[in-house]
Amino acid sequence: MKNSDRATEVVPRPGGRSARVQAAVFKAVEELKQEGDPSGLTVPAIASRAGVTPSTIYRRWGTLNELLSEVAARNLRPDAPPEKTGNWRNDLAIWLQQFVEEMSSEPGREMLREVLGGERSDNAGQCSAYTRQQLETILDRVAEGEDLPTDVDKLLDRVIAPIMYRILFTAEPPDREWAQTLLDKTLESGQSRC
């Protein structure tokens, strides 16, 4: 590569224009959603509010659904690590109750629908990664020498998956007791094999 070619090469800067555009667009989406008129949530309205052109949004996200999916996935990112009480089982039970309450609330259900409304699976995969990370954080708290009766994959398959199914596909959201029963059975089945 010639020196003159390097001078014209564009290298994206972390926190540069791209990050500012994304932040402005995400903020515009949130503001328009808070106004409560679903018909006002359009690419031209978002672009106008964000101070960008509609083509900027289409170039970056492709469709309105994809943009909404990415915003929802970002909003589902946990704000903090799971509560630490000194007992990993208690931490897991507390985290699960909070998870069920947040995901089965109307705003939680709406965000999940938006995440799944995107054309790419990246955003849904990111949400799964957030849940996996939270569970790994809790299971890392198991005391040295203590048997771990389960693993993250079993928790995802036997606890989180049925909860998400009820949230997304049934009229009756899961309740705390049912979720706790799933967790207890998963932990007990692991102990019986130890």
Describe the structure using short key phrases:
194 residues, mainly alpha, Arc Repressor Mutant, subunit A, 0% strand, DNA-binding, Tet_transcr_reg_TetR-rel_C_sf
Task: Describe, in plain words, how this protein is organized in 3D.
The structure is a single chain. By secondary structure, the chain is an all-alpha fold. It has two domains: 13-62, Arc Repressor Mutant, subunit A (Orthogonal Bundle), CATH 1.10.10; 88-192, no CATH class. It contains ten helices and no strands. Helix 5 (64-75) runs parallel beside helix 8 and helix 9 packs antiparallel against helix 10. It is elongated.
Our measurement of the CA-to-CA distance between the termini, rounded to an integer number of angstroms, reads 61 Å
Specify the helix fraction band: 55-70%
Q: Supply the number of helical segments.
A: 10
Radius of gyration: 21 Å
| Average pLDDT, all residues | 87
Q: Oligomer, anyone?
A: single chain
Number of domains: 2
* SSE series: HHHHHHHHHH
Please state roughly what percent of the residues sit in beta strands, choosing from under 5%, 5-15%, 15-25%, 25-35%, 35-45% or over 45%.
under 5%
Backbone structural class: mainly alpha
Query: What is the number of strand segments?
Result: 0
Approximate shape: elongated
Sheet with the most strands? Answer: none
Low-confidence stretches: 1-14
